[in-house]
Each structure stands twice: as structure tokens, then as C-alpha cells.
Amino acid sequence: MRPARALRGGLLLLAVVLMLFPAVWMLITSLKDIQDVYAATVFDFTPTLDNYRDVFVSTSAAGGASDLVTNFSNSVIITALATLLATLIGVPAAWGFSRFDLKGAKDQLFFILSTRFMPPVVVVIPLFVMYRWAGLYDTRTGLVLLYTAFNLPFTIWMMKGFVDEIPGEYEDALMMDGYSRLQAFRQGSLPLLVPGILATAVFSMIFTWNEFTFAVFLTGSTARTVPPAIAGLLGGQSTPWGLVAAAAMVFALPVLAFGFLVRKHLVAGMTFGAVRR
Amino acid sequence: MSATTETSTRPPRRRLSNTARNTIAGWGFSLPYLLVFLVFMAGPIFAALWFSFTDFELVNLVAPFSAPWAGFDNYVQAVQDPEVRKAAWNTAVFVVVGVPLSVFAGLMAAVLIENGISRLQSVFRVGYYLPVITSIIAIAVIWRFMLNPDIGLVNRTLALVGIDGPSWLNDPSTALPSIIVMAIWRNLGQSMIIFLAGLKGVPGVLYEASRVDGATFWQRFRWITLPQLRPVTLFALVITSIGYLQVFEEPFVMTQGGPLDSTVTIAMVIYEQGFNFFHLGYASAIAYMLFLFIAVLAFVQFKVLGQDD
Fold first, then answer.
1. CA–CA separation, B96 vs B86, rounded Å?
2. Mean pLDDT of the B266-284 span
3. Chain A nearest C-alpha distance from B173 (Å)
4. Cα dist. B149→A60, A83, B73, B249 in Å?
5. A57 — phi, psi (to 5°)?
6. CB B142 to CB A213 under 8 A?
7. Which of A170, B42, B84, B137 is deepest in the core (most CB within 10 A)?
8. A39-49: per-residue pLDDT in tens?
9. What is the mean pLDDT of residues A61-80?
10. What residue numbers bound the domain in which A119 lies?
11. pLDDT band at residue A277, thresholds of 50, 70 and 90?
């Protein structure tokens, strides 16, 4: 048994190194100037933060903010607003689905889940036409609305699970005491739902922050978010690998931090709530 | 596993009018969602179907209803289009090779973590799930750099042992396999998380009983773990296949579909036709075929693999 166990442990360790090393290498690359990126040695170099500076400050003679700063501020604003809206609309809806015996609620929930199976490339062409027609193409508003819509099914599905876990008696008791249905929800269930709401919101943030397909189809330069912008850096003849690596690091770090915060709910979040624990 | 069951402890409603009021209130709460659903999902799905039967081009953007009717022309053209065929083939290879390997790798990782290590479990879990929540763009960028023929980590490592590595993403014979390996690397974490959750649900009594009977590790795996994980496996297969059928970001960032169309996928063709050439009707027809295929595949997988439940 012992050697087998050691072998398994060794295999796992090797696999984890394989999983993490690309990230470590990217970190190293982001700290190199252009000569060191192309140098023959991997680890022998003088670390520099120039690439990180270039993410935020333009390299042109005039100085000022770089294009990536615009992309990052777009991403921050769009992610924050879309998450907020999805939570504000989604939590009451989830509560409604959970607490009321609705005719047709099952069908609605099925529809909500089925949107998970819908390829973005199918709806993106009509959305493109609609956005061009309505003046929403390449606007932050357009992306906020779209991401709110696409975060909602997930928010409702996750939150319904959390509401289901809280017995309805709290609210019933408060209603006996003369509270209205809404007051009973606010006083009775809402405080208990806060951790669930935060976890769900973090997942919405991660999805929105990372989203690429809609962003690349529905934005030009004004409202462009970070993922298509980073992809755009790769276009030319010689790729500025140090800058790309630094931008990718700055882009990925918040997600890793947030992912760590919701690690307990990771299974539910990654599987759209289908597998809870 | 799924905890979305109704709470049965609620007291019965007192009056009928109350029920009616509750129904109205309940629908009221879901109304904003329903509106959003109609505008951003149901509407576009029907619009895409309609576009797919028209010659919708750039000029029709100002007046969407002016696009001339084309009947099934777009579909006929798509089936005969060599690039669509090439893309369908590449996507099929991606799914047929990539899905089983991703799910299998995830299962292996989950079983190893569950059985091998107890103290460092959380560290290992983090190591595997990081790629899943990290943006695919960041990952594709890293891999494109790692596979760079001159300065990439892979060929530098190969050079250490005297092997002259190929020009991975610039060679039609290695480009698609490279992208498949990257996809497996990225997605095994997702399967692993699903399987870890599934393994927690396997009753410990079964293992204890089998130990008493003298079953080996592999016998336990074959006759207890695998059958118990069946629903979870189904779920992992379905969501991985649906994701892989839409593969877009990986070739978009790493190869732009090249070299010689060797990594062009269905989603890439939709992008090219729709947004480079603005053949929006034609692109919609290809998108709809993909959509129907995904729907049918999900349905069949549930039917075939879920028949015991």
C-alpha cells in the first residue's frame, strides 16, 4: 500500500506542477524586458516592472493613459453594473420562484436552465443587428444590458437553491405579526441570504469579467473590454510578449482572488447549481 | 445532490383569494426576468431562424426587414461549402478526441485526490480549478507563448534533450492537436470538480463492505465508484461536449483558424462570414445548424446515458 500511495502522491504533484507552471512562467515573462524575453536563458534576468507600467501608461512620446487603461475601466464598470443589476432583478425573482406555488414555474425554470445550452454564436448575430439598429453597438450600456440578461438565469438558479434552504416559517411568523409579505422577506429571509447573494454575485462577476465572444462581436474600440483587447495585442508582426504577459496577469489576478473567496461554492457555481455539494 | 426541492414544511394557505394574490405577486417578481429573457434570448433565437432564410447583408442593417427571402439557399450553400465542411470536421475531431480525454483526466484527478492525499487536498484542488475560472483569453495567450517555436517553453525544454521541436501552431499537422491538448489542460479542472462532488455522494458503506470482501483498489473503482458516478459522468460529458462544440476563443487567439484552415471551427466560420464578410443571413444558417446539433446531442446524451434514472 505505501509505495502505491507514494506513487499516487508523486503523480498528483507532477500534475499540479504541470497545471501551475504556465502561470508561473507568465509571471516571470511579465517581469522581463524585451531582450530577456528573447534571451537564451529562462531564469537569468533582471526583473523590471516596466511592462506593468506600460499596461497603465501609454508608451507614446505624448504619455498619458494607454489604450489598455480604457479597456480595464470598461471592464470594471461593465462588470460592476451588470452584476449589480442581475442581483437586484434575480434575487427577488428567485425568491418568487421558491416561495410561491406558481403554475408554470417548473417550465420557466426549465427555460432558465436551457439558456445554459444556448451557444452565444447563435444569438449574437440578431443581437448585433438589434444593437446596430438601436444605437447600442460599441456602448457600455449595450454590454451592461446584455451581461445582465445572461447573468440572470444563473443568478436565479443559484439563488433559488439558497432560498429553498431557508424555511418559509420565518416569513410566515412575521406575517402573523402583521408584517407584509415584502417586509417579511426583508426582515426574515434576506439577512440569512446575504452570504448566498455575495457568492452568486462573485460568480456573475467572474463570468462577466472573462466574457469574450459577445464582447468581440458587439464592440469596436470605445466600449471594448479587456479580453478582446488582449487578443488584439497578438495581431502584429512581433508580439510584445512582456506587455501581453503583464496585461494578462493584471487581468487574471482579481478573478483568482474572487475565486478563492467563493471556493466553497465553486462546485455549484461551475455546474450552474446542478451539483450542489 | 440537487437540493432544489420544494420545502414541504410550509403551512397550507388559508384562503383561496390569498393563493390568487400570491400567484400574481410571484409572477410580478419574475416579470423583469421574463422581459429580459424575451428581448435577449427568445427574440434573438427566432430572429436568427428568420435571418437564416434570408440574404441578410450589411445594407440591410438600416432596415432589418428589407432582407430578401432566400428559402433554404443558405442551408444548401452551407452544406456544400468546403470551408464549412472543413470546420465541421475540425470541430468533430475536437469534440470526439477532446471530450472523452478531458472528462477522463478529470475523473483520474478526482479519484487520485480523493484517495491519495488528505492533508494537501485543498492545495491540489486549487491547482486544478485555477485554469477553469481564469479567462480563456489569458490561457490561450500563455499557451501561444509556450508553443512559440523559437522562444516558447515547450521547444526550449525539448532543445535541452536535443530535440528540435516543431513549429506547433504554424504547422497544419500539429496545430489542432496542440489546441486540443490545451483545451484538455484547461477543462479537466471542471470535470474534476464535478467528480469530486460526485465522489462525496458515494456511500462509504459500499467501500467498507467491499474491503471486508477483500476487493482491490481497481475492483472497488470498477464496480462501486464508476457505477455510482454515472449521473455525474453524464453531466460532465454533456456540458463538456456543449462547450467544445462551440470552440471559438482558442483558435481565434492562437491561430485565427490557420494554418491552411487546419484549426478553423464552426464558430470561427460564423464569425468570419458574419463579421468579416457581413453575410449575416448565411452566418445565421450555419449558427442554426450548430444550435440544432447541440440541442439534439444534449437530448441524445441524456436519453442514452440517463436511462437508468
1. 15
2. 92
3. 22
4. 30, 41, 43, 21
5. -120, 135
6. no
7. B137
8. 767 777 888 88
9. 83
10. 68-226+250-270
11. very low
CATH topology of domain B82-305: MetI-like fold (1.10.3720)
Closest partner residue to A37 (CB to CB) among B37, B151, B185 is B151
CA–chain centroid gap for B142, Å, is 20
Q: Do B7 and A164 touch (CB under 8 A)?
A: yes
The one-letter code for the residue type at B168 is W
Residue position matching grid coordinates 468533430: B92
Whether residue A141 is contained in a domain is answered as yes
Looking at per-residue pLDDT, the higher value among A100 and B267 belongs to B267
Q: With a cut of 90, say whether residue B150 has pLDDT above it.
A: no
Check pLDDT > 80 for residue B289: yes
Measured between CA atoms, the residue of chain B closest to residue A244 is: B141
Q: Which residue of B has its CA nearest to A154?
A: B33
CB burial of A49-70 (b: ≥16 within 10 Å; e: otherwise) equals ebbbebbeeeeeeeeeebebeb
Enumerate residues 6+ apart whose C-beta is below 8 A from A86: A147, A148, A151, A152, A154, A155, A201, A204
Convert the pLDDT of each residue in A204-250 to its tens digit. 999 999 999 999 999 988 999 999 999 888 876 678 888 889 999 99
Q: How far is CA A3 from CA A16, A214, B295, in A?
A: 20, 50, 47
Amino acid, single-letter form, for residue A53: R
Neighbour-count burial for A234-260, b at 16+ CB within 10 Å, e otherwise: beeeebbbbbbbbbbbbbbeebbebbe
- The proportion of chain A whose per-residue pLDDT surpasses 70, expressed as a percent, equals 84
Block residue for cell numbers 408554470: A104
Please give the average per-residue pLDDT across A63-87, as a whole number. Answer: 88
- Complex ipTM over 0.90: no
Question: How many domains does the structure of chain A reveal?
Answer: 1
Minimal CA–CA distance to A206: which of A268, A256, A162? A256
Q: Domain-by-domain residue ranges, chain B? A: 16-52, 82-305
The gap between the terminal CA atoms of chain A, to the nearest Å, is: 30
